[in-house]
Each structure stands twice: as C-alpha cells, then as structure tokens.
Automatic annotation (TrEMBL):
GO terms for molecular function: 3'-5' exonuclease activity; DNA binding; DNA-directed DNA polymerase activity. It comes from the Bacteria. SMART domains: EXOIII. Pfam families: RNase_T. Residues 20-185 form the Exonuclease domain. The keyword RNA-binding does not apply. This is DNA polymerase-3 subunit epsilon. Keywords: Exonuclease, Hydrolase, Nuclease. One of its GO terms (cellular component) is cytosol. InterPro entries: DnaQ, Ribonucl_H, RNaseH-like_sf, RNaseH_sf. GO terms for biological process: DNA replication. CDD domains: DEDDh (cd06127). The keyword Oxidoreductase does not apply. It comes from Proteiniclasticum ruminis.
C-alpha cells in the first residue's frame, strides 16, 4: 500500500556531501526536548560553498533561563524578554528552510527539539532530510573524539562565539567542508 503524500514524514539521514544545504544550530534551556525549550535558532544556507542567506532569532521561553545556561551561551533572561515565542519563530524558520536538507553537529539533539516543536505547533514531525557532522566524523576518524570542539581543533577552525547559534553554524559548515575535502583527497565515497 502506498503512503499518501499528505501524510507528514520525518526527514531521513543523508550521508553525503551535498552542494545545497542549510546549517542549523539551536541553543536551549537544557538537554530534554520534552522539558526544556529552544532559546536561539541560527540557520545559514549554502549553495556550492557560498552563503546564500541566513535566519537568526532569539526565542522567549516560558521557563527562566538558568545561570548555568547563561554562563554557557551568554543568553540571559533579559536578552529574550521581547524575543518572539517559539510559536512566532517557527513559521519563519520553516519558510527559510524551504524543504532543503539541514546540516547540524550532533543532529539528533537539534532535531529532537525541532521535532517536539513541530509536533506541538504544526502537528507534524520535522520534515527535512538532514546531515550530521558528528556521524560523518565518526565514520572517517574512528579513533578520535567527535565533539564540535574536537572537529574545530582537528581542522584548525576558529571557535569565536562557541555556544551561540550562528557561530556554531559557521564552525559546523567549515568542519563539513574540511571533511568533504579530506574525502576528495583520499578518494573516499559514501555511496
């Protein structure tokens, strides 16, 4: 039996190096998409290695941001006081993504939060296919560590603004392109 195209689908993992993608990073009030909230969304679109657009917003959560999260991200309760709610921010993000594949580092974290937000606000799972620099790193460098910090150290990428969405997007994109170049040089193909 064929599935109806009107039935929402969850995006699938793509293990490849694409020419067009949107790098995405979220900052949150904690680790659980069930009990914590998104406080910052950053997304940068690339085509053929060239930035073609960006989307960035702070998000006002219903809960207070803890001191730990403020120390980690630099995002305070005062900063998000007049920011849009997630209900107000999601349509803009959805329009910006426009169905393009999403690239994230440790994508299961970001997509867990986006799936929860999409389910709550659109009654549908997050639909975009995705790529994950952590999973690619694990495949290419099996005996190494794979945090974003480890990838930036491995490839000599500056870490200015770490734990802010747009800065993490830039680091993730550079790591992805470094791994693409490594595979090109070594003749490694995923498919």
């Amino acid at each position: 039996m064929e599935k109806s195209s009107s039935i929402p689908r969850t995006g699938k993992y793509i293990e490849d190096f694409l020419e067009e993608y949107v790098v995405l990073d979220l900052e949150t009030t904690g680790l659980s998409p069930v009990t914590h909230e998104i406080i910052e969304i950053g997304a940068i679109a690339f085509q053929n290695g060239i930035k073609t657009g960006e989307f960035s917003t702070l998000v006002r959560p219903k809960m207070r941001i803890s001191g730990f999260i403020t120390n980690l991200t630099g995002i305070s309760n005062d900063m998000v006081k007049y920011a849009p709610t997630i209900e107000e921010a999601l349509p803009g993000l959805h329009g910006f993504l426009d169905g393009r594949p999403v690239l994230a580092h440790n994508a299961s974290f970001d997509l867990g939060f986006l799936n929860a937000a999409y389910e709550r606000h659109f009654s549908t799972p997050f639909p975009n296919d995705y790529l994950d620099t952590m999973r690619i790193s694990r495949k290419l460098y099996q005996n190494a560590r794979h945090r974003l910090q480890d990838l930036t150290e491995r490839f000599g990428i500056e870490r200015d603004g770490a734990h802010r969405s747009m800065a993490d997007c830039i680091m993730t994109q550079k790591a992805y392109e470094c791994m693409r170049e490594h595979c090109r040089r070594e003749g490694i193909k995923f498919r």
